[in-house]
Amino acid sequence: MPFDYHMHTPLCRHAVGEPEEYARRALEIGLTEIGFSDHSPMRQDNFDNWRMNLAQLDEYVAKVRAAKKKYPQLAIRLALEVDYLPGHEPWIRELAALHPWDYFIGSVHYVSDSWAIDDPQKLSEWKHRDSREVWQVYFERLTMAAESKLFEIIGHADLPKKFGHQPPDHYASLYEKFLDAAQKSGCAIELNTAGLRKDYKEIYPSRQILETAFQKNVPITFGSDAHAPQEVGMNFIEAVELARSVGYTEACRFINRRRSMVKF
Question: Residue 23 and residue 71: Cα distance in Å, rounded?
């Protein structure tokens, strides 16, 4: 089993189960390494209702360290899922200096300062938007995130499909530019199995994107995006089959924001 590098905690306000419970579940299913990557705080508290506030960051780190102490036989990495918004780069650099992180997952949720495309509470916003334009802005920001060199991993790289919205006809030109940026900056993309639990019923990213990523030598990681202990490692068999079917045989390991490659 590959490593599960995308897991959350109750501090994000939409997950259940403490890090020690996630770690115990990981051992039960045979994982040897995991990483916690909860939604990072913004400079402004209560930016939205699905992330920790800045004052809780030390508590988050303490919870992950407690899990590491309780389960020394399991390698546990300390990370964050960090939202990329243009202009927020200085804040991301500040976050990076606060603790000895193992990696950052850079994710695009917002295509404007006020609309997170995957927020079920704002699902109605899609009715007032041009889907093609949403996809375009999304990939423009994802490309900027890759170019920023602030992240080791780019998260769920075709997130707009979550609620069933099909990508546009010029899809390939959008994601190829993003993958070129990822390859140039040396960041990985994740196979995120949470997509199988959403309306579109497909791993993030699509086979089409993954095949192009392999051709461009963009490395990968695996993540369940678990928001409950029972979701740890969920659908990893399908994710491994997908990765191998396009040619991947190795995934990334990150320690102190340095990458090595591990066969799976």
Answer: 7
